[in-house]
Amino acid sequence: MTNTINKVLVTFLPDEVAGEINVGETILTAARRAGVAIDAPCGRRGRCGKCRVRVLSGEISAPASEELSLLQPGELAAGERLACVATVLGALTVVVPESSRNMTRRKGTAALPYPITPEPWTRKICVAVPPADLAQRDFRADLTRLWTALNITEGESEYAAVTALPGALLAGDGTVTVVFAGERLLTVEAGETSAAHYGVALDIGTTTVAGYLVNLRTGAEMGTASLPNPQGIDGADVISRIEYTQRNGERVRKLQNSVIGAVNTILGTLAGEAEISVAEIYELTMVGNTCMHHLFFGIDPATLGHAPYAPVVTAPLTIRATTLGIHAHPQAQLRALPNIAGFVGADTVGVLGASQLATRSGLYCAVDIGTNAEVLIAKNGRVVACSTAAGPAFEGAKITHGMRAQAGAIDGVSITDELTIHTIDERAPLGICGSGIIDAIGELRRVGVIESSGRFTDHDELTDLPAALQARLREGGFALATAAKSGTGNEILLTQHDIREVQLVKSAIYSGILTMLEKLGHTPADLDGLYIAGAFGAYITREHAIGIGLIPNMPLEKLHFLGNAAGAGAKMALLSTHEYDKIITSAAEVGYVELAGDPAFSEHFMYSMELDVDCGE
Amino acid sequence: MTNTINKVLVTFLPDEVAGEINVGETILTAARRAGVAIDAPCGRRGRCGKCRVRVLSGEISAPASEELSLLQPGELAAGERLACVATVLGALTVVVPESSRNMTRRKGTAALPYPITPEPWTRKICVAVPPADLAQRDFRADLTRLWTALNITEGESEYAAVTALPGALLAGDGTVTVVFAGERLLTVEAGETSAAHYGVALDIGTTTVAGYLVNLRTGAEMGTASLPNPQGIDGADVISRIEYTQRNGERVRKLQNSVIGAVNTILGTLAGEAEISVAEIYELTMVGNTCMHHLFFGIDPATLGHAPYAPVVTAPLTIRATTLGIHAHPQAQLRALPNIAGFVGADTVGVLGASQLATRSGLYCAVDIGTNAEVLIAKNGRVVACSTAAGPAFEGAKITHGMRAQAGAIDGVSITDELTIHTIDERAPLGICGSGIIDAIGELRRVGVIESSGRFTDHDELTDLPAALQARLREGGFALATAAKSGTGNEILLTQHDIREVQLVKSAIYSGILTMLEKLGHTPADLDGLYIAGAFGAYITREHAIGIGLIPNMPLEKLHFLGNAAGAGAKMALLSTHEYDKIITSAAEVGYVELAGDPAFSEHFMYSMELDVDCGE
Predict the structure, then answer these.
(1) Closest Cα to residue A303, out of B142, B164, B159, B147?
(2) How many whole angstroms from its chain centre is CA B102?
(3) ipTM of this predicted complex?
(4) How far apart are the CA of A309 and the nearest CA of chain B, in angstroms?
(5) How does pLDDT run across A543-581, given as a tens digit for each residue?
(6) What is the SS3 string spanning B530-549?
(7) What is the number of other CB atoms lying within 10 angstroms of the CB of residue B422?
(8) Nearest CA distance, A266 vs chain B (angstrom)
(9) What is the pLDDT of residues A573-604, one digit of tens each?
């Protein structure tokens, strides 16, 4: 009998791979074993419904309460289940729909703000070292003769450089290439190898881990690769991951290992595509929010989970990459940009660098919209920062048919007499991502389907609406794609709930900007420029961002989209140690403002829920 | 049949332990497996005959040519074999005589030259860190608040200190003990732990590895432990070990692992006897000759094997002890004193520190007699150094019945009407060690049994000799112990060959001193003091050291025996970072003189072979 067998196989289609698990474990666990990436942003809590799979055959548990509340009876009848909740009772065959998979996102641009001459922290120098010589009475050590040949006063040498030296001198017949990190001798290689000198800038996001491979000799960017942050399986957002770790060292290490695994996959991919070896990567820089930063380093993030949200460390960390288990040159150095506060992390410091806020005269604002939103305001180079509890609605979370910006996501909506949608990779629509949500709300507000309060207008007040749009009106929702046109076979709806979620997020961001400006004695009208950072920002429509009150009303020419500015900051720091120093210095001078419990913020937050909070001015 | 079985057991008596090996491997290999320490200073070459064992029963190879030449027919008949050569053909039972064992030597004294106030490089400070506080608007990082509580500008922190911090703050309820190495934060511990703060000074000798445990808070020495350097099995001297490594990274690592294993045994013993944990050892210093230094760090010593004998590194190395596999606190720091040249190593730098040569006004000489001999001459604080190719005769090597200064070694000889010997631990004599050899030669020269040239006087010229001494005269030798009185059952002889070996060594040392003084325009008569370093030195008779021409003739009050001054230097550097700095600075200013190929040295060497080279002046 199957229920006397402990181990069973779960086969996943269309992949045709199988994972072995114990009876009583979930389909999601089997998927992880089999290497099938199923999205589970709620951290296995059965709340988000993103991990739907269809059971074709086999023994499975009866639907749990979470499944009964998130799945329609017809869906359950068709075998649809939540992979994170449904437990396996016997051998099973399961179909994983594309909409439930973790897929590579659209690449976020991480463009440099200006051309940067490569002056990396690590340097490679080829030098010929004359041998010790009895006749010349030169009995000096190999290392001493090496420093003399370099014409540098003997400085600090890494242990590995010392042990590598005699072999390198022998194999290179006296000619070696030395690698420095700053003034410290990192390693010595036989012969002339200075052309092989690469670095990677890492952007460790809550949802996505991205790497940028740079030729440190020429400054050329050689490739980009990204993966979903695999920590997502244990919690979609920062707070869920902190809750998951529970001050348990093993769990902190598990999350660390999981993100380092993703980094290694990315390094392997980048190296493979560029036809180099990971051992030629000598230097990495890293940005991420404070929690991602702490987990990346294996630092317990528990204190980030409750007021006053103090981080363990804000200072910039430098570490040998292999200490973290990163596959690069054995002596490769990793430098993390510093954090500013518990919820203003190294990613925001990257934005600070890429937006050049600390060197601009005038009044500027930069907002980084990712899983959270951080706001920087700079007045003649003096910078203050805050974090707004924005939440990941623009990443698709908590949105009924929300999804990440992956193939099939509705990322653009426009309305004339009828509704036109655009999807990523022009695929049949599977759901809606951040820019699509903003477009949809903005357009529906424009044509009156949504009121200023965010409420759907009563249908009987919409009799003037073109018939094609009328046909899309639903009770408490609007159909962006019909069942016939959608890639899921079901309608893709924007619901009243979705609009409320977006209002919460956009109000948090808007109020954050307003409160910070107010503290400096300013209003949005005084701004000389507003920078929107975040891969998401690159795809939103400026008019709608203002239209729905996500950001203050301002001339469009003052509005700049930086793309992945956090990643750009990491690249700047990688390319040039001068840029790194500049960023570190300006980050150390940023003033942090805590908005939690700030009465001005609470007041702004209330009235900023209005969609056209700022459109009348 | 036994010869179809691959694995056989070799049982060792009186230990009653067994080692399993393959048929065809040696008894020595089986002994290593079983953990039985058998001496093999010639590096398994069948040359020194120190690894004699007696086979009681079992199948063994026929005597090899090395055994036929080193063992008497009677000995072979009694089952005596060389463990390094005899190969095992079947299960075997073997007796290991005490004279063939590696035993702990007499402890070398490593007395400090003056009292030193403990000011170690590593410091422990207990501090209460106020929590982050919403009401006080204190959102700063744990690490930032820690540095503030210490009242120190935030400096460099080890990664391990950062990861340890949140747990330590939680467990210590805000009170933590920080450990610094210099200005760098090494680690953080919960609560008040500053009383537990220990360090170990390591003296890595070619033949002996010694460790000195010091309480770094009080400066008290808590214990000493030593072991034979287990690298001895692959070569008794520096040159054999270099030949063994053959530029082969695996072999370098093997020798490194073997000495690190001995260090770990020593640390475990020291910690156990002092009832502390090795994890409370935060700091180590290390001295050793250049080759031992290189092998300790896993640095290929190949270039030390041939002219111009350039080392790989002379600069002081600092490394986390765990990087070398040393069992101490995970962040424990190890600092090696620098080397000066290929054959003037960190051990000589230790002697430089302990002899205070660099701070004396006047003309001074220090000689470190170990497996090799290094000479330092200082004129008003300016120091020059050289190495003499002395060889390990005083360690018992190449001496017919030579042995290390272990229990049963003859370490003192005096002659009146008859001969009196003293043995270590007052045991029945097993052989003769360095101080015994010098005494024996000195006394026999005094009574005319040996001529000034080192030759044994013809027996017919010795008719005036007391009968008790006459009875000890042998053809080409002199019996220091009769078969009846010896612990081996055989006579213990001083042979003509032994005297020649000692003459080579003493001439090298004497000529080194003379040549160096000459280069400074001086003769031995100008010396204000002569320091003899080396554990060996502590036991020799001053008169005989001068009498046989080991050192220049000088008033005995100018002659000082420092004991293990290399170890004392390591202890000084451990106890006080100021002493460390002073030693490093003076070592960097030492001028190195290469005696190889120096015509003056060659000339002195020739006539210094005479035993009473300097007695007539």
Answers:
(1) B142
(2) 14
(3) 0.80
(4) 7
(5) 888 889 999 998 888 988 888 899 999 999 999 999 999
(6) EEEECHHHHHCCHHHHHHCC
(7) 16
(8) 24
(9) 999 999 999 999 999 999 999 988 899 999 99
